[in-house]
Amino acid sequence: VVLKSEEGAGKGILWNTFLKKIFGQYGTQIQDKDQILGTFNSNCEQKIFLQMNGLIKNSKLLLKWIIMRIF
């Protein structure tokens, strides 16, 4: 699921209000691309939902790279 919109549209509220409660320990919020791409990315281990908050301008390429690395 990709939620993309202008800043301030409420994506973070959706995470904090509903999704964090649904996914619990299997979800996390990412603020920096190095939390995914860096050497120390164990915070993403065993997660099924990542809420990536404004990582980079060309997030489509990042998303494609992440998917290709997983599969």
Q: Helix and strand layout, with pairings?
A:
Blueprint: H1 11-23, E1 27-30, H2 34-37, E2 49-52, H3 59-70
Parallel strand pairs: 1-2
Characterization of the model:
The chain is built from 3 helices and 2 strands, in the order H-E-H-E-H. The chain has 71 residues and is an alpha+beta fold.
Main features:
alpha+beta, two-stranded parallel sheet, 71 residues, globular, 11% strand
Short description:
This protein has 71 residues and is of the alpha+beta class. Helices cover 41% and strands 11% of the residues.
What is the averaged pLDDT score? Answer: 77
Number of DSSP E strands:
2
Distance between the termini: 17 Å
Give the strand order, joined by hyphens, for the main sheet: 1-2
Shape: globular
Rg, rounded, reads 12 Å
Tally of helical segments: 3
Identify the quaternary structure here: single chain
Structural class given helices, strands, pairing? alpha+beta
Q: Uncertain regions: pLDDT < 50 for 5+ in a row?
A: none
Order of helices and strands: HEHEH
Main pleated-sheet profile: 2 strands, parallel
Helical content, roughly? 40-55%
User: Which strand-content bin applies to the residues?
Assistant: 5-15%
